[in-house]
């Protein structure tokens, strides 16, 4: 079962990675895209702690990005938050 | 056993745990491994061989008093699972070790000296294909007498009131959105408060900035630089808080255990207490 929100986040991050000329930023986004693609189809979905780590990494990447890339990262973060709202926690 | 760069020998690697799996599976209480989860279905499916499984909500909290375990319950929990006062206990768990770190702090509060965290937690163990089993171990019960409490590790609301008055650093480890008051809790998490925002004067230093992308802690020099550049040094008392005290246990561990700061308290009442208090001030918006 594919987790559609995480798949969407992966695709958004992949496109953002390919769209920026900043090589460091591009590599960071590609790494995140790879991880979300894996998480989208993993046997068990990620928990809040893992997703919070990803959110922090993405926020730090957005802080150094141009506006277009930052907007794409924010779109991916919205997908991640939407997924988090579906998983249990205390 | 662990990275010597840290102030205390309290962090073990997955490789070290793997090398000692036979001892963790032995009835000899010298070494014990404990997985602490909120979602214990994950433990049931797979965990490190020899690891006991503790449910944070039902076994490490007093849900009636809304508190940590009292001394008798703590002693019963450990003794009945074959953990002796001189056992070396390695903790790890789900949610990036949030609840394992909370448990570590509670072990220290009740005076268990030799406790360690598995660096990277359950995610790191599973992601890197270390051995797993679905068999839960059973160890002979032992006597456990706790030495604690050690209240110097725990902040109560009165400590926070005094900290505000005295300008003692309060480290809010939640997300910027929680800190600013835009949300009451991360999406999907149940416990919230009536008000959004932060304790007046608090600094927002995310728990997530203490760890690398793979969940293992950052090196000591990076942690020290992060805290000191935010005005949090080892020259005064520090109080860490979050929403329910679990994420702040990560920051408490980084400051008190890894960096060796002398006086760090975890405010486990955290925002679910402070944000609900009548007559206490809060601030909203970004940190000053």
Structure description:
The complex is a heterodimer of chains A (90) and B (288). The longest helix of chain A is centred in the middle third of the chain and has 19 residues, at 23-41. Chain A starts with a helix and ends in a 6-residue tail after the last helix. Chain A is built from four helices and no strands. Chain A has one domain (4-84). In chain A, 43% of the residues are buried. With 90 residues, chain A is mainly alpha-helical. With 288 residues, chain B is an alpha/beta fold. In chain B, helix 6 (94-109) packs across helix 11 (247-258). Chain B has two domains: 11-149, 3-Layer(aba) Sandwich (Oxidized Rhodanese, domain 1); 152-274, Rhodanese-like domain (Oxidized Rhodanese, domain 1, 3-Layer(aba) Sandwich), CATH 3.40.250.10. Classes of the chains: A mainly alpha (90), B alpha/beta (288). Chains A and B meet through helix 3 and helix 4 of A and helix 6 of B.
Q: In short, what is this structure?
A:
By secondary structure, chain A is mainly α. Helix content of chain A is 77%, strand content 0%.
How would you sum up the major sheet of chain B?
Answer: 5 strands, parallel
| Domain module tally of chain B | 2
H/E element sequence of chain B: EHHEHEHEEHEHEHHEHEHEHEH
Looking at CATH, the homologous superfamily of the largest domain in chain B is: Rhodanese-like domain
Shape of chain B: globular
Task: Summarize the helices and strands and which ones pair or pack.
The complex is a heterodimer of chains A (90) and B (288).
Chain A (H helix, E strand, L loop, with lengths): L3 H16 L3 H19 L6 H16 L3 H18 L6
Helix pairs in contact in A: 1-2, 1-4, 3-4
Chain B lengths: L10 E2 L1 H6 L1 H4 L6 E7 L3 H5 L5 E5 H4 L1 E2 L4 E2 L2 H10 L7 E6 H16 L5 E4 L2 H7 L29 H10 L3 E3 L3 H5 L22 E2 L15 H10 L8 E4 L5 H12 L5 E3 L3 H5 L14
Parallel strand pairs in B: 1-7, 2-3, 2-6, 6-7, 8-9, 8-10, 10-11
Antiparallel strand pairs in B: 4-5
Helix pairs in contact in B: 6-11
């Amino acid at each position: 079962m594919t987790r559609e929100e995480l798949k969407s986040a992966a695709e958004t991050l992949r496109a953002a990675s390919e769209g920026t000329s900043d090589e460091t930023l591009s590599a960071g986004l590609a790494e995140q895209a790879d991880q979300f693609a894996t998480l989208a189809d993993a046997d068990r979905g990620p928990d809040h702690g893992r997703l919070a780590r990803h959110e922090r990494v993405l926020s730090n990447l957005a802080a150094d990005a141009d506006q277009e890339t930052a907007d794409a990262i924010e779109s991916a973060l919205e997908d991640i938050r939407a997924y988090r709202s579906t998983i249990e926690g205390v | 056993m662990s990275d010597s760069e840290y102030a205390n020998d309290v962090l073990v690697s997955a490789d070290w745990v793997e090398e000692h799996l036979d001892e963790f599976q032995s009835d000899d209480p010298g070494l014990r491994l404990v997985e602490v989860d909120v979602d214990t279905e994950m433990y049931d499916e797979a965990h490190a061989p020899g690891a006991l499984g503790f449910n944070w909500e039902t076994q490490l909290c007093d849900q009636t008093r809304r508190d940590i375990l009292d001394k008798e319950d703590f002693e019963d929990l450990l003794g009945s699972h074959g953990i002796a006062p001189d056992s070396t206990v390695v903790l790890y768990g789900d949610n990036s070790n949030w609840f394992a770190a909370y448990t570590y702090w509670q072990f220290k509060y009740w005076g268990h000296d030799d406790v360690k965290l598995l660096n990277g937690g359950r995610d790191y163990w599973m992601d890197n294909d270390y051995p797993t089993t679905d068999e839960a171990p059973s160890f002979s019960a032992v006597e456990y007498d706790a030495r604690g409490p050690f209240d110097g590790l725990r902040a109560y609301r009165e400590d926070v009131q005094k900290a505000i008055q005295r300008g003692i650093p309060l480290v809010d480890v939640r997300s910027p959105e929680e800190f600013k008051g835009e949300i009451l809790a991360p999406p999907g998490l149940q416990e919230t408060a009536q008000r959004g925002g932060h304790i007046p004067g608090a600094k927002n230093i995310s728990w997530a900035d203490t760890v690398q992308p793979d969940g293992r802690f950052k090196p000591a020099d990076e942690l020290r630089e992060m805290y000191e550049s935010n005005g949090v040094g080892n020259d005064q008392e520090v109080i860490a808080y979050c929403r329910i005290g679990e994420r702040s246990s990560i920051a408490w561990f980084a400051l008190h255990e890894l960096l060796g700061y002398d006086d760090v308290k975890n405010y486990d009442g955290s925002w679910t207490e402070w944000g609900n208090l009548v007559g206490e001030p809060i601030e909203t918006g970004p940190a000053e």
